[in-house]
Amino acid sequence: MSDMKNRWIALYVENQIGVLAKVSGLFSGKSYNLQSLTVGTTEDETVSRMTICVTSDDITFEQIKKQLNRMVEVIKVIDLTDVPLHMKEILFAKISGIGEEEKAELFRIAQVFSVDVVDIGSDSLLLECKLTERRNNELIALLKSKFRRISIVRGGAVAIESISTGCR
Q1: So what's the pLDDT on residue 2?
Q2: Tell me, what's the pLDDT at 38?
Q3: Which CATH architecture group holds 85-161?
Q4: Who's near 165: CB < 8 A, 6+ residues apart?
Q5: What does the pLDDT look like over 111-139, one tens digit per residue?
Q6: Domain layout of the chain by residue ranges
Q7: Number of other CB atoms surrounding residue 67 within 10 Å
Q8: Which of 132-135's residues contact partners 24+ apart within 8 Å by CB, and which partners?
Q9: 55: nearest Cα among 74, 27, 78
């Protein structure tokens, strides 16, 4: 049996009420664990694109793709697992209970990671990050090592196939 690893799917679906519930229901009904799922409309308002990450082996992943292809509302299933991609994940990090020195340190960290400081309070700061999952993980680890009161809100990744030879 093959190794468990993160697999990525782009799923084009009809933009209708209940489609997200049906797709997520397929995953929960079969006990497949979704790592990430993002949904948005495309240039065609009647079509949405889902970016899905699931951890599975090769056999299970093939079953998932076949089951998704059988759904009436699914227009197209694209396996992005081994495709060159441009992929980003949004993350907000709120750091509270800090003084002026810690704020200065956070501004330096924001500059190094190329993230935006989007809000600031008397004892807190809010960072907005649009990085890869790996870079977001690195940022979180650094923040946890330096600050005590951290709140993280993470969105799922969005991805698009590279035009040339771009990478994740």
Answers
A1: 64
A2: 92
A3: 2-Layer Sandwich (3.30)
A4: 84
A5: 999 999 999 999 999 999 999 989 999 99
A6: 5-79, 85-161
A7: 17
A8: 132/87, 132/88, 132/89, 132/168, 133/87, 133/89, 133/157
A9: 27
Q: What share of the chain is helix, strand, coil (3-state, %, to 5)?
A: 30, 45, 25
- pLDDT tens, position by position, 52-69: 999 888 898 999 999 999
Query: If you classify domain 5-79 with CATH, what class do you get?
Result: alpha beta
Angstrom distance (rounded) from CA 24 to CA 37: 9
Task: Tell me if domain 5-79 and domain 85-161 are identical in fold.
Answer: yes
**Residue 95 contacts residue 102 (beta carbons within 8 Å):** yes
Instruction: Round to whole Å and give the CA distance between 94 and 84.
Output: 32
Rg (CA), the chain: 19
Q: Is the pLDDT score of 1 beyond 80?
A: no
Tell me which residue of 149, 14, 52 sits closest to 95, measured CA to CA.
149
Measure the CA–CA gap between 106 and 73, rounded to whole angstroms.
46
Contacts 24+ apart (CB under 8 A), 14-19: 14/46, 14/47, 14/48, 14/73, 14/75, 15/41, 15/45, 15/46, 15/47, 15/48, 16/73, 19/48, 19/73
**C-alpha atoms less than 13 angstroms from C-alpha of 62 in its C-beta half-sphere:** 3
Q: Which of 63, 69, 8 is nearest to 34 (CA)?
A: 8
